[in-house]
Amino acid sequence: MGGCLSRKTGDFHPVKDIQDLTGRVVIVTGGNGGIGYHTIKFLARAGAKVYLGARSEAKAKAAIAQLKEDGIGSGEVVWLKMDFSNARYAKKAAEDFLEREGRLDILSTSSIFVNNAAQLTGPLEITKDGISSLAIVNHFSTFVFTRTLLPLLIKTSNEPNSDVRIVTLSSIAHTTARPCDPNIHFREASDFNHEFANDWYPDWSRYAITKLCNLLFANELQRKLDALNLPNPILSIPIHPGEVNTFADRTPWPVIAGAVMGVFFMRPEPGSYTSLFAGASPLVRNFPGKYKGRYLEPVGWVGEMSENAKREDLAGELWETTERLLRDMGVEVPVVGEC
């Protein structure tokens, strides 16, 4: 088998194409529905203990009950209370996990569209920290959560036969108009608060910018991890899950969007395959130079990033500005490599 699969989901299936995860500990954020739900299902079936990140205990317990009904084999699924609407809450969720576990092998972070309501539409909302709610959920909280867990991920990578991976859900949206602006920058809080009122779909423009942030973060994280020269390198992999039918009801035209997505978009289960490939396929560990820090599309295909996504200067700027703005909020994160 070669080092890359084709674009067809039929070439990959998690039942046969992910490794045994017995004894491994995993976190999947946004796991009570959609892509996250199916990601958890297959990781648990491979033997992992999976923490389902969700804000609502009732929804998390309902999802876990359904997962058990669907069948999770020898795996285990546990709720981790998680609310990304505030970076402080995201850090608290990570700290709660650190009190419960002594290892973390796979971290798969996704994001919702806007704040707790998980809406793709709606006016620009600025939080009390002076940053848009969308940027807080999709970028800042993901950044805090990952960085807080990084010392444990590094510790786990020093264990025998370790295979630690960080999978960050980005989107092909990062290749659309606004994220491709050559003059884009991330220097101040206001750079995350553009309304784009004159765009045909301002909500999408704002969302797409956060997906560029996810990609820049994942790639900068890989560079910083590489600089540590870990004996068993940690792989940071940003992905586009594909066009998945998960948000028709969050658009201004739910009936039309639902009909179109039902025909042209993937169902959530195959929509989870790229996350599963990045997080648990043995191919990724066998060919780390091919996949680490690379943007993957369905399934296992190394995609083409936008020119802005390739910019190390922009990634570094985003990293430094995010840290500074978090400090202004009173949120500190560990230095990369600090255990």
TrEMBL record:
It comes from the Eukaryota. GO terms for molecular function: oxidoreductase activity. Keywords: NADP, Oxidoreductase. InterPro entries: NAD(P)-bd_dom_sf (IPR036291), SDR_fam (IPR002347). Belongs to the short-chain dehydrogenases/reductases (SDR) family. This is NAD(P)-binding protein. It comes from Panaeolus cyanescens. The lineage of its organism: Eukaryota, Fungi, Dikarya, Basidiomycota, Agaricomycotina.
